[in-house]
From TrEMBL:
Organism: Pisolithus microcarpus 441
Domain (Heterokaryon incompatibility) ranges: 85-172
InterPro entries in the record: HET
Entry superkingdom: Eukaryota
Protein name: Heterokaryon incompatibility domain-containing protein
Pfam families found in the cross-reference section: HET (PF06985)
Length: 310
């Protein structure tokens, strides 16, 4: 059977590829760790890696063999797969490497603190799962820039949601069945990381998998899901398929009520993504003021005044 003639080709496949790459990167964090080299890459470096990759050459080679629709589909598929990334969720410890500590270096060359080893182990796990990119809140944000910090806080939920895997490191979990005792379940920011992530794997103190099942997502493991429900008080349907927004706002606030943050205002800021609100960040304001602004927004949009009694 003769193959149907291909339709008219795009006059500029490179421009088409660049447009798709740009659209994809808009949904990703500004900086990502390149897992094979351990180097922190900004947008330009991410694009440079892609344009020197076999995947890019593959797309260029298809221009003469596919029609526009087929080519567009392949471009989107290849670019989406190339820029898949893993995120780290953890309790901060002493000596976490910050952006200035790793700029221009490979994280695999770092020596010393537990924070450096943790970052290396995380990137190695991401690489083993075939992700070229990884993101950690320790070193991938310029916390000296107030504008970038604000953008990161309001985008954090989306970044975890768009990641293909969240690696949860529980440094204080040593045995099966002790998940609920981890301090990870008492921290404010880890609540949205748990709810936003599309796939999660839990690792114990020695970087071994907490669950010995072959699940690629621990929230699909029924036994572990029961442990998560008991540890958090969150119903299973939210643990497996959470939607940000105003539904059942009081319950969402109750989930956070047992958690704490190092900076008091963060107890409110860490909930912005869960409620899908976009409010300004004012470090230095009181906890009461930060929560007051959040509650006012929730009531304004949901009409649910019961949140005042959470």
């Amino acid at each position: 059977m003769r193959r149907p003639a291909a339709g008219p080709l795009s006059p500029d496949i490179e421009a088409s590829i660049k447009k798709v790459v740009s659209d994809r990167l808009e949904k990703l964090p500004l900086r990502l760790l390149h897992t094979s080299t351990g180097v922190l890459c900004d947008r330009d470096a991410q694009i440079s890696h892609f344009e020197s990759s076999p995947q890019y050459q593959h797309l260029l080679s298809l221009a003469s063999s596919l029609d526009n629709h087929q080519l567009e589909t392949e471009i989107n598929n290849v670019i989406s797969e190339y820029f898949e990334y893993a995120t780290l969720s953890h309790r901060w410890g002493n000596g976490e490497p910050l952006l200035r500590d790793i700029e221009g270096k490979s994280i695999y060359d770092l020596r010393g603190t537990g924070g450096q080893v943790k970052l290396q182990k995380f990137c190695i796990i991401a690489l083993r799962h075939h992700f070229q990119w990884a993101w950690s809140d320790t070193c991938c944000i310029d916390k000296e820039s107030s504008a970038e910090l604000q953008e990161a806080i309001v985008s954090m939920f989306s970044w975890y949601h768009w990641s293909s895997l969240t690696v949860v490191y529980l440094s204080d979990v040593f045995d099966r069945g002790s998940l609920a005792g981890s301090v990870w379940f008492t921290r404010g920011w880890t609540l949205q990381e748990l709810l936003a992530s599309s796939a999660i794997l839990f690792y114990t103190y020695d970087w071994s998998l907490y669950s010995k099942s072959d699940a690629v997502d621990h929230t699909s493991d029924p036994a572990l899901l029961d442990e998560l429900r008991n540890a958090t008080g969150i119903a299973k349907q939210h643990l497996t398929n959470f939607y940000p927004g105003m539904d059942d706002a009081r319950s969402r606030l109750c989930w956070a009520s047992r958690r704490r943050t190092t900076r008091p205002e963060d107890i409110a800021y860490s909930l912005f993504g869960i409620f899908q609100v976009h409010l300004p960040i004012f470090y230095g304001e009181s906890t009461q003021n930060a929560l007051g602004r959040l509650l006012a927004e929730i009531i304004s949009r949901s009409g649910d005044v019961s949140v005042l009694d959470w």
